[in-house]
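REQUEST ID: PR-0412
SUBMITTED BY: lab tech R.K.
PRIORITY: routine
TASK: structure prediction, single protein chain
INPUT:
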Amino acid sequence: MGENIYLFMIIALAVLAVTDLIVGVSNDAVNFLNSAIGSKAISFKTIMLVASVGIAFGAVSSSGMMEVARKGIFNPSEFVFAEIMIVFMAVMITDILLLDFFNTLGMPTSTTVSIVFELLGAAVAISLVKIYAGGGNFTQLSNYINTDKATEIIIGILLSVVIAFTIGAVVQFFTRILLSFKFENKPKWLGAIFGGMAITAIIYFILIKGLKGTSIISPELSVLIGNNPEIFILGNFIVWFALSWLATTFLKWNIYTIIIILGTFALAMAFAGNDLVNFIGVPLAAYESFISWSNSGQLATQYNMKGLAVAVQTPTYLLLASGIVMVVTLWFSSKAKNVVKTSVDLSRQDEGDERFEPNYLSRQIVKFSIKASESLNGLIPISLQNRIDTQFVKPTSYAQKAKAKDQPAFDLIRASVNLMVASVLISLATSLKLPLSTTYVTFMVAMGTSLADRAWGSESAVYRVAGVLNVIGGWFFTAIVAFVAAAIIAYIIHLGGIWAIAALLIFAFVLIGKNYLSHTKKLKETKEEEILERAESSSIQGVIEESAKNIANVVKRASKIYSNSINGLAKQDLNSLHKNKKQGAKLANEIDDLRNHTFYFIKNLEEAHIGASNFYINAMGHLTDISQSLEYIGKVSHKHVNNNHKKLKYNQIKELKQIDIKLAEILDNTYHAFEERSFEKIGNILNNKQELYDLVSQKISLQVERTRSEESSPKNTTLYFSILLETKDLMTATMDLLELYYKEHDADIAPAKLD
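STATUS: complete
OUTPUT:
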């Protein structure tokens, strides 16, 4: 029976390894995809193909076992087989849950840090069990745990965050001064120098980080590079400078695109070759331990695990299989795209939808930075300041593009610097045998370059800083939760044995399954729910034609939100009202985004079509009034039920439903008029508007009479009047919008649009 338990654990660990590969790739894709996706240097399919080849190449050429899983964090000679299996099982269960949690949030975290702290937490828990069972005390823990290594890793994490951000900012600042935003107009030799430096850094990175210790690069070449790095780098620079100049001058290639392709391949390869072991290192160590114990003939509680200290090469077929799982995940994981989006959004050049809300700390950091910048500017001669400022002037067309989602988040120069600096830092740390997280380095380099590029202007700085603080806070959260959760799970397995393992596995897969279904449902709802689109037309008729779909979208959602509020009150359904309240807030946010676009819309207008701006501004004002009324009705309805106030009376619900039915009819007619572009139907809707106004006024009078004679609940009366009055405002805003479109629409004029 004893051997069957451990066989079950090995099978479970194999399943967990595959699951961990999937959730791990979803998280770490940000390391090598964000620069290429953010700059849109090449098509998305090409990016994925380059990354896939890099992953496959890196997986097959992986240097094998992750030593940290075997002996880096704990001393294997202090543990027996039964204890080691508990540690490994606790680590893998914790790892997939933690990484899946961060993927669901769309936040990048470090797989290296999570696995290290999980090993540390689980090993500490089992060590303490052993110590106290033997009558020892806490001071003996240092015999079991490699505290020096753990401390080195923690310091490495902290330093890598600061150093990556600082160096990224400095290199980007001087690169931009040298090349400016009009880099395509610069002399070819200047681009060739940059290309030579960047490609040299990336090639050195591939050789030092990606291929060192593998069969692809010979030991002699490794020794040669290691002993003469300066000569190797100089020789590389000369060769790549010459090739870059020839490619750009005669073949007319874009050197920055080549850098991005090569850099994406290099980081993808390094990720697979080195971080792969974060996902399969623990299960493989467990498998090796199981085979060793099975051949020993000893009891699991007696067999010492000192054999883990010996390095073992991973079979190539396992590396290949792992690489295939990683590539498939990269192509199909929507969570991977979600994590990449967070990194790209925080580093994009222009303003747009900000995902993170500003907090006290982000505001104070921005205020301090502004003051520090002003003080520093006082020390720099004005003539030099002006010369620097001219290099940071963006092309005017960049800011005026209406469809921001179709534009690059940043240019090719920044993408190239991101990849070059990340490559240099990671390869330098590897050659010096310093522990660091590739996720932390690539993310913080991207944040540093965006800061230096003046992407964090006064319009967006507090949001971006808040986002970076959230991500960094998440990293420390990763370490703490990984340690605590792995320790708790290890102790539970120690107490419950096979039953505890079975229960924890079921819990883990149910939770991951639930998260997957929830995420899929959310994506489906996002796709089905038409998002409001920004106008690009330059004439009134163009705006009418183009925005008709938006109006149809708004009135359709407005009818649903209003009806859900009334139905939720009738049924006292708090869950439904909560969802409805969120839908109202979402609609209001989308309309706010359209209003924020007004600046870019007006910038695009020509003199002849200046009247379109007045039409657009008025239309936005009416849409805002509609969304505010709906949001208010949703809020007060939810608040009333949430506070357990008295239910609305039967007559009140009945009257509200009468209004709801009539309003739904008007909004439905409005929807069809705009959806079908049958603007002549608007006249019929406007002719019947008085009927609903009269109905609402009648219900207000009835409630006044009820309040004077029989009504005993102030809260009910307040809610009822609030809904009726807000309904009136909703109708007024809707009719004003319809009158605006009816008055301005002219079927004889062809809509003018921007080029």
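NOTES: The two ends are 76 Å apart (CA to CA).
REVIEWED BY: pending
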